[in-house]
Amino acid sequence: MPSAFEQGLPNRHLPLSVQSAVLFGGFANQFGWLFFGFGMVFVTLFTLNADFRSVLAFRGELQMADGTVVECEPTRFSEDDSKTYAVTYTFTADGKHCEGTSYCTGHEMKVDSRVKVEYVKGRPSTSRVKGLDSSPVPFWAGLIPVIFPAVGLAFIITGLRSGLRARYLLMHGLPAVGKLKSKTATNTRVNDQTVYKLTFEFAADDGNTYEAATRTHEPQKLEDHEYEGLLYDPMWPSRAVLMDSLPGSPRLDTMGSVNCDKPMRGMLMLVLPAVSIIGHGAWLCIKILG
Fold first, then answer.
1. Residue 81: alpha-carbon gap to chain centroid
2. Could you tell me if residue 103 is inside a domain?
3. How far apart (Å, rounded) are the C-alpha atoms in residues 143 and 145?
4. Which among 19, 7, 26 is positioned nearest to 170, based on CA atoms?
């Protein structure tokens, strides 16, 4: 596909505040980053401590050994209001002294008590007390938190795709004006407000009439004038964006440059993504390096 330059399209400069607003602003993006960042807290606490090892590592041939409990300490985890304990034990396998940790819930195990240890054949480092878990969080409880960042990520992808399209059109789109053709209520609500689908009709430079549609819970922003400004792709005129539907309220000035009324508000759209990425990234680095 020819580049915008090869097509002879405008090549407008976008201030960082405008790019921040269209790429990371809007309900889908902000809700997505909030949900993703919040959900990753529970993934860190529970999913990364879940007993996936029992499902994956103990599927092969297992061997048994006699073991001795050397320590039993409470953890920060609990299940059904019952405390989870870390049970450290020792055993001998293949003539070597080995140590491991398993987890039990609801009761402590006495130091020096005898236990049965099962381990993967040829890998005594992968072991557990028979009947106990090898991680403090049950397998099923580790799966549930993944739902939250997954939902957030879906919103982020949706918002980012819309943002990238808006960014392209702000840089290279041709201006036009559209008139409201239809307004339809959807089954979606945002902040207890109905989301509407608004369809505008506009004439492109090729002389044909096209439609541009958007969904918003603030339709009044697109109903305050008889005609609404928009930008469209001349190679694909139905690919258009209404200026008043964009986060940050970007505007085309008389010189054809793009600006926004409140640049600081556009920059604030970076806060949630930055906090989420930097916060969880720093924790991951500490976990790996520590």
1. 30
2. yes
3. 6
4. 19
Residue (of 32, 44, 51, 12) closest to 251 by Cα position: 12
Last residue of a domain, one of 75, 101, 135: 135
Provide the residue range defining the domain that includes 115.
55-135
Tokens encoding 116: 């049965």
Count each helix (H run) and each strand (E run) in the chain, helices first.
7, 12
Domain CATH code at residue 96:
2.40.50
Interval 214-248: pLDDT, tens: 999 999 999 988 999 999 999 999 899 999 999 88
> What's the Cα-to-Cα distance from 34 to each of 30, 143, 149, 266, rounded to whole Å?
6, 20, 9, 17
- Specify the pairing of strand 250-252 against strand 236-242: unpaired
Neighbours of 53 (CB within 10 A): 14
Look up residue 262 and give its DSSP letter. Answer: -
Residue 60, both tokens? 């092969």
Flag whether the pTM goes above 0.85.
no
Q: Which residues of 181-199 are buried (b: 16+ CB within 10 A; e: fewer)?
A: eeeeeeeeeeeeeebbebe
